Amino acid sequence: MNARKGNLLYGQSGGPTSVINATAYGVITAALAREEIGLVYAMRHGIEGAIKGDLIPMNAVPKEKLELLKQTPGSAFGSCRHKMKDFTQDDSEYRKLLQVLKDHDIRYFFYNGGNDSMDTCRKIGEYLKHVGYECRLIGLPKTVDNDLVHTDHCPGFGSAAKYIANTIREISVDLDAYPTGKVTIVEVMGRDAGWMTASAALAEDGHGPDLVYLPEVPFFAEVFLADVKRIYQTRKRCLVAVSEGIRDADGALFDSGDTQMDAFGHTQLGGVSTRLADLVQRRTGLSSRGIELNLPQRCGVHFQSRTDVEEAVACGVAGVRFAVEGQTGVMVCMERLPGSEYHIGYVANPVENIANGVREIPRAMINIEGNGMTQAFLDYAKPLIQGEPQFLLENGFIRFYE
Amino acid sequence: MNARKGNLLYGQSGGPTSVINATAYGVITAALAREEIGLVYAMRHGIEGAIKGDLIPMNAVPKEKLELLKQTPGSAFGSCRHKMKDFTQDDSEYRKLLQVLKDHDIRYFFYNGGNDSMDTCRKIGEYLKHVGYECRLIGLPKTVDNDLVHTDHCPGFGSAAKYIANTIREISVDLDAYPTGKVTIVEVMGRDAGWMTASAALAEDGHGPDLVYLPEVPFFAEVFLADVKRIYQTRKRCLVAVSEGIRDADGALFDSGDTQMDAFGHTQLGGVSTRLADLVQRRTGLSSRGIELNLPQRCGVHFQSRTDVEEAVACGVAGVRFAVEGQTGVMVCMERLPGSEYHIGYVANPVENIANGVREIPRAMINIEGNGMTQAFLDYAKPLIQGEPQFLLENGFIRFYE
After folding, report:
1. Is A145 marked active-site?
2. Helix axes B20-32 and B306-324, enclosed angle (nearest 10)
3. Partner of B46 for a Cys bridge, out of A326, A358, B5, B13, CB 3.0 to 4.6 A?
4. Which of B130, B201, B196, B123 is closest to B169 using CA atoms?
5. What's the predicted TM-score (pTM) here?
6. CB burial class (10 A; 0-12, 13-18, 19+) of residue A284?
7. pLDDT for A8-46, tens place per residue?
8. Portion 67-86 of B in contact with A at CB < 8 A
């Protein structure tokens, strides 16, 4: 029998995905089964709620209800985009948080998010070490953008990729209904890395995009227009997947005149597809249309990849194991095991190695022209979209945790 | 044993839906089983292909391949948006078509589309009667817009409604991730009638739209802004479903400055959500976002309603029965049978009664304020989105007919 060490607090941060709650499911069910862990709490709206002491007790939630977490998009416990100051400059929030941790005897602190969230994790870890409060901090990966370093991929990406590839394929079939299809420019999320845009190429058998433009490759409007004209001449249609984050050779975002900043200083993007469609129409005379896939990319739970759901759960379970074994200040990472079959191992890497890093698409996964993906990308991404979950439905709707 | 009368030609026209090919499946399989009907052809790109003699023979297509029609979006045989002139003014296309019908001994002519297609059907029927060529003309309903008159609803609408309601619900959950959500304005297709926009309201349990604006109710920007502010004050979010076809009290489309016309003289819409989000941001200071659901509404086959698929097939089968029984110049219509359970009967109505009519949402299905739906609408629409098909998948993708 292992001695009880204390209670666990789990929080969600940043933009939701369609499987972040599957990771919550993994953490909560694994923690409830551990003798070392007493009570399990979730933060309401991430660190914002934790600082205010707004914790949701999880021990009494029925098992059947917890199961619904796996098929619920969004952030079941609420998320936030809160940037904590450095505690050496201003420790007021840290002191409030410490009091909440003490009040609830929290000895396991789990934070589920992207690189900004891992930075929050790192800061809290440093503060708790500084004041000598013993607590194990575990970061859990989550991002549709797939841009965290030191992990093969990120939970959330597989389902987003599946949504994007399937939707592109359906749009392609729709275009082909007419003898000549419009030049159709589909804008995909992804601020600094093109993983989501690239996943459009997973729609093969002639229903993929004719052209793909990524933030990793400098974008030249004249080359783009020539590409479109060339494709249209042979196919009498042109389907383009373009990242919201395309930039010129100097790294400036495409037509960045009307952009805004968010709390982390990231530029808020959007509207690229409409502007490109307008450019094509003006310069080539070809009838054009912009489609922004927008929010459904990250909340389209119907397109969950079963592989993604299972891995998201496994990340949560691995995090609990690492914490109980004594690790702290680490994020759960996925490692692709060698061999011809797809297998993933779960390892721990220090959060400071992950915070604020960005993993771009390797050049070898992009074709020489810089307007499409290579087989290396398809080999990498295909396993991530495999399998469909069995959903619990009610009256034509997937049941959500609430 | 019934005497063979001749061959059958089936065509698709207008914008695709996610179940138009299910109707094709119904026609083709029912026709192949009939002794009265010999060969079965499909027009490539609708009447455009028929005039050129571009016919696809269907008799040799394997049964397993035909089954895939039920889960294929777009127009499997190609569609068109071709407006035929009146034959009294110019009969050149009609004469070409007549020759193709004679060459292939076509005695059953099936045309699958919306009200423009029924008008094409009517014109061809009048011409063939005029020249004394015996051929039975059957119209088959198809439109995501659900705006055909003399039918309870249209195949294609149930699946589009299911896509819209599920997507709105997922967006709602995504908004609720943060303590305060953006004012989010979701733009839905629907040129003259608000059925598709209204179907957003099917997402109940707190995840529906807070406000719904339809072409049926005059749109006043000031009332809209007051509605948004009121909702935001209590809910700290505001989710709006708005039709691309909203218009002012004089019937002018909202901000119609940058609109274009299609071949039928219909205005090409879009961009309303972005313009409204901009208006909200400027006038209220609330952070706002526009989302245009765009093409996936009509091609999102993953959201097929099984009810819709089954009815789409049944329309095709009923059409073949009506034709063999001697009817001509009629469209297959759906009639909701009396009783507490949902049952549909299939009847025939003259195409001239349907061509160019538009069925708007009855006022009793819209709330008094004109910004939401009543129980009467929910009772009408709910049965149409029920059930999920069992899809044949391959590597994470639904298999398509091709």
Report:
1. yes
2. 40
3. B13
4. B201
5. 0.94
6. middle
7. 999 999 999 999 999 999 999 999 999 999 999 999 999
8. 72-75, 78-81
